[in-house]
Amino acid sequence: MDEQYDVIVLGTGLTECVLSGLLSVEGKKVLHMDQNDYYGGASASLNLTQLFRKFRGEEKAPEALGRDRDWNVDLIPKFMMANGELVKILTHTNVTRYLEFKQISGSFVYRDGKVSKVPSTEKEALTSPLVGLFEKRRLKKFLEFIRNYKPEAPVESPDLDLPNVPMSQVYKYFGLEEGTQDFVGHALALYLNDDYLEQPAIQTHKRIMLYTTSMARYGKSPYIYPLYGLGELPQGFARLSAIHGGTYMLDKKIDEVVYDESGKFVGVRSGDETVHAKVVIGDPSYFTNKVKKVGRVIRAICLLRHPIPNTDDVDSVQIVIPQNQVKRKHDIYVACVSASHNVCASDYFLAIVSTIAETDNPQEEIRPGLELLGEIEEQFVYVSDMQTPVEDGTKDNVFISKTYDATSHFASVCDDVKDIYKRVTGEDLVLKQRPTQEEEQEAMANA
């Protein structure tokens, strides 16, 4: 195995698999290794036996839950924005050929103890129970402005110069109440906390437009989700890498990351075998001395026999609980999918509640989310550290991904992919529609 590669990738999380696929397509010789015997790493989808083994040790799953093959339980719950960066990467690489997607049926927000549909258009703003009569008009005007805003066009007030004013100033201009600001910032723009209020408003505009254009693409909600769970995503990129010459080794022990005298990465040792490469990309679990803890995320995986109450009995939904509604510094997210997504047995629903932990009692912090679920059949709770690399990797050629945060979609994961890609290659990742397999074959036949 003493072979030379361009890149060694350690771990099969989504970030690592996307980068492996992208670099393989571009002709790099890639070796991809993982100590686990399954794809996905921290973002894997587990069957019933794996789920109980991970959280309950030797305890067997109740027979009533059905068969292993009926369950694909995500450890990291996230949905995909229909017009988001991950969809663009999937299209750019044509990984969509390996996957099937289903729309998420509802997008809801929690306010004053109730769950209501997120209004994303002027028409919905006028009928939403979230806001009073006069506030409906102000919200309608605000959403009209967001939809029609063009950076190059003159604005009617200096308060609406979005690149140069904070979002708090824009809210003030339209006279939006704090509760309305809550769901705009947290359920439309999908910010985790209120830091955005003092940042340039143009960033919030982009996020709201992503939500509304994603919503317009399919209706019902802006989110889509792969059948059989999120574990399908890294496997799709692994197949892409393999087609373009990438080599995969699962269940491969990593004994040592090898450096030269100057501290630069030169290879990876497994037993008495060593492989060499110019660059290594990996998740934080392989580089514990090169990362730092920046917080903790708590997640509760809940198995239900019913849809989440007060969500119109839909088969899938996201609910955002804005921080201010429960006197916290970070939002709580509730994601729910069902048997219609091929992730659980018939008549079951799979709900995951998550947030960034702020205290020494994180289970109490997610209680507002758990209380929305109704009766819970089984519950698995875990807390994981959020880690980020200490350095950017350019000194030692070690490029480390960030762990997954509590956000409900993949924007931060895609940012990390693009950031690492640029540091490794020196070039920006430019996403474009690649030819399909059929078009490539036709072009070769006509050559």
From TrEMBL:
<dbReference type="GO" id="GO:0007264">
    <property type="term" value="P:small GTPase-mediated signal transduction"/>
</dbReference>
<dbReference type="GO" id="GO:0005737">
    <property type="term" value="C:cytoplasm"/>
</dbReference>
<comment type="similarity">
    <text>Belongs to the Rab GDI family.</text>
</comment>
<dbReference type="GO" id="GO:0005093">
    <property type="term" value="F:Rab GDP-dissociation inhibitor activity"/>
</dbReference>
<dbReference type="InterPro" id="IPR000806">
    <property type="entry name" value="RabGDI"/>
</dbReference>
<dbReference type="GO" id="GO:0015031">
    <property type="term" value="P:protein transport"/>
</dbReference>
<protein>
    <recommendedName>
        <fullName>Rab GDP dissociation inhibitor</fullName>
    </recommendedName>
</protein>
<dbReference type="Pfam" id="PF00996">
    <property type="entry name" value="GDI"/>
</dbReference>
<dbReference type="GO" id="GO:0016192">
    <property type="term" value="P:vesicle-mediated transport"/>
</dbReference>
<dbReference type="InterPro" id="IPR036188">
    <property type="entry name" value="FAD/NAD-bd_sf"/>
</dbReference>
<dbReference type="InterPro" id="IPR018203">
    <property type="entry name" value="GDP_dissociation_inhibitor"/>
</dbReference>
